[in-house]
Structure formats: structure tokens, C-alpha cells
């Protein structure tokens, strides 16, 4: 294999990364007792939102990075309680607390036997947050 850049020792600078190939299992359904537990994930979401946003004050400039970091935090914490082979989709909505009303809706195409979602809300005097995690079984 020829490389355009080599080190002084003659070895290539960039070693190719070999991917591990796994064989298909052809499992179309999760194992018994290994389904997405929406109640457990909801408790994780509620606890994480309360600890991360306890006394946070809403700011328009800081809301986008805050929502992104919250989504990453919630997804990583939800992964710890979700069985393997589930893909997680995490949505976080942040807004300023006021006299407005808000309706959040989502639609998805999935298998109702194995896929589910969990949702949690948090609000303080300054802001509100709605977090939704969809768990979709993936072969």
C-alpha cells in the first residue's frame, strides 16, 4: 500500500482503521424482558432535567447550546437504562416562561410491539423544557 506521507522511519503517518464486521443476527424482535421501559426512561429524564435546569435563567442567546447539551446529556443517561439494539432519538424544546400555551406533538412510523417513547417536562420561574426520547428497536 502506497501512502503519500511517510514518517522518518518509513512507516505511513496515517494507519488505516479496520472496521470490525459483525454478522447479522436476523432478530426481528427484542428478547423477552429487553423492551424499552418508558416509565424508567421517563424517571431518568425527569431527574436529569431537574438537576440540569434547577435554577437556570432563560436567555435567548444561550438557549440553543443549552438545548443541544441537554439533548446529549439525556441521550447518554437514557442509554444506560435502555436495552441494547435500541436506537434513541432525543428532542429537547426550551422556551421562556410566560403566559403562552404550547402544544408539542410528534409522529413516527414504528412497531408498537417493540418501540416506544418517554417524555418529561420541567419548568421554573424563568423557563420550561420538554424532552422526548423515542426508542426504536434496530437489528
Automatic annotation (TrEMBL):
Database matches in Pfam families: Tctex-1 (PF03645)
CDD domains xrefs: DLC-like_TCTEX1D4
InterPro entries hit by this protein: Tctex-1-like (IPR005334), Tctex-1-like_sf (IPR038586)
Superkingdom: Eukaryota
PANTHER family in the cross-refs: DYNEIN LIGHT CHAIN TCTEX-TYPE 4, T-COMPLEX-ASSOCIATED-TESTIS-EXPRESSED 1/ DYNEIN LIGHT CHAIN
Sequence similarity: Belongs to the dynein light chain Tctex-type family.
Protein name, as recorded: Dynein light chain Tctex-type 4
Lineage of origin: Eukaryota, Metazoa, Chordata, Craniata, Vertebrata
Amino acid at each position: 500500500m502506497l501512502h503519500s506521507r511517510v514518517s522518518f522511519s518509513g512507516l505511513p503517518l496515517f494507519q488505516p482503521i479496520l472496521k470490525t464486521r459483525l454478522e447479522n443476527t436476523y432478530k426481528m424482535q427484542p428478547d423477552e424482558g429487553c423492551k424499552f421501559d418508558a416509565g424508567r426512561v421517563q424517571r431518568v429524564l425527569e431527574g436529569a432535567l431537574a438537576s440540569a435546569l434547577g435554577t437556570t435563567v432563560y436567555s435567548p442567546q444561550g438557549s440553543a447550546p443549552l438545548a443541544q447539551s441537554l439533548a446529549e446529556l439525556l441521550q447518554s443517561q437514557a442509554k444506560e437504562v435502555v436495552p441494547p439494539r435500541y436506537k434513541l432519538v432525543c428532542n429537547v424544546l426550551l422556551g421562556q416562561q410566560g403566559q403562552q400555551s404550547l402544544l408539542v406533538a410528534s409522529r413516527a412510523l414504528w412497531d408498537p410491539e417493540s418501540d416506544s417513547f418517554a417524555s418529561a417536562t420541567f419548568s421554573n420561574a424563568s423557563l420550561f423544557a420538554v424532552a422526548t426520547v423515542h426508542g426504536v428497536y434496530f437489528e
